[in-house]
Write a structure and sequence with these properties.
This protein has 627 residues and is of the alpha+beta class. The protein has 18 helices and 20 strands. The strands form five sheets. Strands 1, 3, 7, 8, 9, 10, 13, 16, 17, 18 and 20 form an eleven-stranded mixed sheet that branches. The chain has a three-stranded antiparallel sheet with strand order 4-5-6, with helices on one face. Bound molecules: adenosine-5'-triphosphate (ATP).
Length: 627
């Protein structure tokens, strides 16, 4: 029904870039925490700098469309970053404002604000009413304003205007308009009318306390304001403009939030959708030939019109100045810097004469009651229950020099190398290269050391009883053997790596050959069993693995784990059954969650089912043993 018309913007086919603003919230010192001062500060209305994690005497500088410093008022944010795009929605175009950033950095403050300091949402809605009012009567258009309000919680689309709603589907019509059948759409006639619906609906939003924010938004909230204008005289042309106001859930590092139980699950969903958002940004930046993965998360599917689509978009990246947010701030700034490159192509949506706009749409068809439905009350109940086994109260603090943080920064830096910002690229290239080399040397050293351990374990085992039971998990044999080889004198520790590196090529092929036969013999049985229910599958996997030499198996597992944790894209792709896409997903997972602590963590990577994991393990263990 709706058609794109290229002419209704006065023939203006100009593209519109996503404007990126960064807002720094005021420093908040917490009584029991070390007060180290800010790690980031503004330079002027467009530039800011953050301490360089590689060298604390240096800073890294960023340039954005707008920088809002700590003293910036809610009104200034609105006037500079939001107000200019609002007139477009009266002309049948889309506009969107979304707040992005780490948890606790001020997204909700920016979007919602408080009664004393109202944020973008109340100000924008008021302005839309003002704009409609100010329109010339003689213009012969009638305007109607409507609202919908939803949240994406754990990848479910829930109607905040109808709190008992269930997961709603997202559809796209033939003209690529995103639709949510069943979502409440309410006509509003004034700002007061809006407030009447909006305030109670906001209380339906899922929030909870985390270590970083007393009242943390656990969902992405999207307010849609729709302006439909209809020509009074026939033919009754109708144009629809949509304004999306989005308060994203915070990007989180669970090592700092202390999330567990349901908080951790929520966090997984939040990080997944934000990760997809960053993939969408990457794809848009890399050119039109690439498939933009909008469909990989509900958030990006809904924001399809707002990013690289037809909207005038503003992204307000909220950041916090405290040191404990350093990694999140650094990530958020890099994400924002990438988003700056996106170019939207605004167009007007126009339909032919639909005289009556329904006040409230019909609820979703009955068949949509399928999997994953979850009414609000049940959700809250579930939350309460899980919160009981939730987070410990102690505050986590990670210094910048801590290895895990360093590893993640290095990983992030590597990812940044893939983005198209040439300035950053050239600055980082040399540093990244030398860091990579050092890292590789360290890894090699670690590899030698673990080989040495294994060798001494092997030697120790020969003298042990053959009655030793086969191991039950990948940690057990090492622990067991560690006690055996736990008191080598220092001389041995130095000599062993050399011995292992010489002896292995001679020993391994013979053992591997024997084991390949074992694997082959078992293969048919195994492939049947991979299909079997979970428990059985695990049992059978152990059965398969227990046919192999435990130390060699462990060695192979460590090798694979090592590649998963420190392999570059090429090295990951060299693994069996890992293609380009999966390798990138693994890199992405590492960037968000840090290291894989065990191989089984691989199942948490998008698209890696237990079955795939099992077959991945078989292929790679056999391959690693053959090397
Ligand atoms: N510009 C600001 N001025 C004053 N206080 C602020 C500002 N920005 C944020 N705050 C305060 O900081 C705290 C955290 O902010 P807020 O809840 O908006 O963070 P958030 O990014 O939405 O977090 P989450 O993702 O966890 O929901 C709140 O108490 C808020 O009032």
């Amino acid at each position: 029904m709706a058609q794109r018309v290229a002419v209704s913007d006065g023939g203006n086919k100009k593209t519109s870039r996503v404007r990126v603003a960064v807002r720094l919230r005021p420093y908040m010192s917490i009584p029991d925490e070390k007060d180290e001062g800010p790690c980031v500060r503004g330079l002027d209305s467009q530039n800011l700098e953050i301490i360089n994690w590689r060298n604390a005497t240096e800073t890294v500088k960023y340039h954005f469309d707008v920088f809002h410093g700590e003293q910036t008022t809610q009104q200034e944010v609105f006037l500079t970053s939001v107000k200019p795009i609002l007139p477009h929605i009266l002309n049948g175009q889309n506009a969107s404002v979304f707040a992005y950033g780490p948890t606790g950095a001020g997204k909700t403050h920016t979007m919602l604000g408080s009664a004393k300091e109202p944020g973008v949402i109340p100000r924008a809605v008021r302005e839309v009413f003002n704009l409609v009012k100010a329109k010339d009567e003689g213009e012969e258009w009638d305007y109607k304003i409507g609202m919908s309000y939803l949240e994406i919680y754990n990848e479910k689309v829930l109607d905040l205007l109808s709190p008992n709603s269930q997961d709603l589907p997202i559809r796209e019509d033939k003209d690529k308009n995103i639709l949510i059948p069943g979502l409440t759409h309410t006509i509003i006639t004034s700002f007061l009318d809006f407030d009447k619906h909006f305030v109670p609906a906001t209380l339906n939003r899922t929030t909870a306390s985390t270590k970083l924010n007393q009242r943390s938004s656990r969902s992405h909230a999207i307010l849609l304001i729709k302006v439909v204008r209809t020509r009074r005289v026939p033919p009754q042309r109708q144009q629809t403009g949509k304004l999306y106001l989005v308060d994203l859930a915070g990007s989180e590092d669970n090592r700092r939030t202390g999330n567990q139980g349901i908080r951790l699950k929520e966090s997984g969903a939040i990080n997944l959708s934000l990760f997809t958002l960053s993939k969408v940004v990457d794809s848009l930046n890399s050119g039109s030939a690439v498939r933009v993965p909008y469909r990989d998360s509900k958030l990006t599917r809904l924001l399809q019109d707002s990013l690289g689509g037809s909207a005038h978009s503003v992204m307000i990246t909220n950041i916090a100045p405290e040191y404990k947010y350093y990694f999140d701030t650094f990530s958020a700034l890099n994400f924002a810097a990438k988003s700056k490159l996106i170019v939207n192509k605004p167009f007007t949506r126009e339909t032919v004469a639909v005289p009556v706009l329904p006040v409230k749409r019909a609820r979703e068809e009955h068949e949509a009651t399928g999997s994953g439905t979850e009414p609000q009350k049940k959700r809250q109940k579930e939350e309460k229950k899980d919160e009981q086994d939730g987070s410990s109260p102690s505050a986590h603090y990670h210094s910048l020099s801590e290895p895990s943080v360093m590893d993640r920064l290095i990983a992030l830096e590597k990812l940044m190398m893939g983005c198209q910002d040439k300035d950053r690229l050239s600055v980082l290239k040399d540093v990244a290269q030398s860091r990579k080399e050092i890292q590789e040397l360290k890894e090699k050293q670690r590899e030698f050391e673990s080989k040495a351990k294994l060798f001494s374990q092997l030697a120790g085992e020969k003298s042990m009883s053959k009655q030793e039971p086969s191991f039950k998990n990948n940690i057990a044999p090492l622990q067991r053997k560690q006690t055996n080889a736990s008191k080598p004198n220092k001389q041995q520790a130095v000599v062993q790596p050399l011995q292992v590196s010489r002896l292995q090529p001679l020993q391994q092929p013979a053992v591997v050959k024997k084991q390949s036969v074992c694997v082959k013999k078992k293969e048919k049985k195994l492939s049947n069993l991979v299909e079997s229910p979970e428990g059985k599958e695990n049992m059978q996997e152990n059965a398969w693995e227990s046919q192999l030499d435990t130390s060699l198996l462990e060695q192979s597992r460590q090798k694979i784990l090592h590649i998963l944790n420190s392999g570059c894209l090429k090295e990951l792709k060299a693994l069996q059954q890992i293609g380009d896409k999966k390798a990138k997903l693994i890199l992405g997972w590492r960037e968000i969650h840090g290291h894989f602590t065990k191989l089984e963590d691989l199942i948490k990577v998008e698209g890696m089912t237990e079955k795939r994991f099992s077959s991945f393990m078989k292929a790679n263990i056999v391959s690693a043993m053959g090397n």
